[in-house]
């Protein structure tokens, strides 16, 4: 399972690097893309902060309620052998 995760991360990194090279060869950078959509880096930062603030209560719900319930159910399962 860990090998699969590492494999996926390496593939993602390779594809991201390839896309970055292609965009660089085409003369495109992040500033020009943001200018085309009418955004600034500060706007993107604010969107990320808003998303985090919206996701945080659900993350806390998972940490406080769902994970302990899952652990209880996992411990109550009968042994496999």
Description of the structure:
This protein is an all-alpha fold. The chain has one domain. Helix content is 84%, strand content 0%. The longest helix has 36 residues, at 41-76. The two termini are 22 Å apart.
Comma- or semicolon-separated keywords:
81 residues, mainly alpha, 84% helix, 0% strand
Q: Give the overall silhouette.
A: flat
Measured distance between first and last alpha carbons: 22 Å
Radius of gyration, Cα only, in angstroms?
21 Å
Helical proportion, percent range: over 70%
Model regions low in confidence, pLDDT < 50 over at least 5 residues? none
- Helix and strand sequence: HHH
Question: Mean pLDDT score, rounded?
Answer: 90
Which structural category fits the helices and strands? mainly alpha
Q: Number of DSSP strands?
A: 0
Largest sheet descriptor? none
Query: Given the structure, what is the number of helices?
Result: 3
Q: What share of residues are in beta strands?
A: under 5%
Number of domains: 1
List the helices and strands and how they pair.
Blueprint: H1 2-25, H2 30-37, H3 41-76
Care to give the gist of this entry?
The chain has helices at 2-25, 30-37, 41-76. The chain is mostly helical and 81 residues long.
